[in-house]
Amino acid sequence: MLETYPIGRPTIPDTLELGAVLTAIDRIEVLPEAAREAVAGCDDLDHPIRPGAWTIRAVVHHLADAHMNAFLRSKRVLTEDGPTIESVDIDAWARTADVDAPIERSLTLLDGLHPRWVELLRRCGPAELERPWFVRNDAAPRTLWRSVLIYGWHGDHHVAQIRQVRDRDGV
User: Fold this and answer.
1) How many other C-beta atoms lie within 10 A of the C-beta of residue 129?
2) Domain range for residue 131?
3) Is residue 12 part of a domain?
4) Residue 2: per-residue pLDDT
5) pTM confidence score
6) For residues 78 and 76, what is the distance between their CA atoms, to the nearest angstrom?
């Protein structure tokens, strides 16, 4: 059976742990190469990662979409006081016309985006990492460091999903 969370759910501590943030930044740094390795030689990019779920192609495009948004969110959090950031409907985004585009476009985007994002995050000290942001209709503040931990996990999570289905189904 294919696991929905092959690496488990993210673990987020209650307070800022710089070591965990640095590890997550390292994971963000290597995600473009890990994604390329996960899809290398795949002969069916339109194979679903689980029955009824997104395809391998859609997951690769989702990584680019989500990480672009996270990079922009990071910039807003660092340059605005407590910005309110709209959430996006990821399932609707996964149904837009570009979901059929060649995955190389999204892989190339990740290749260019991640070094900039990593450079930005590595220059953040504790005060910057603690900066808050909000999601519309949710009064609870979020912090930049929690986003870093989530996205360090997020890339690994989707790469593991791709590897899991490729190993099982031989695609």
Assistant:
1) 19
2) 41-169
3) no
4) 85
5) 0.96
6) 5
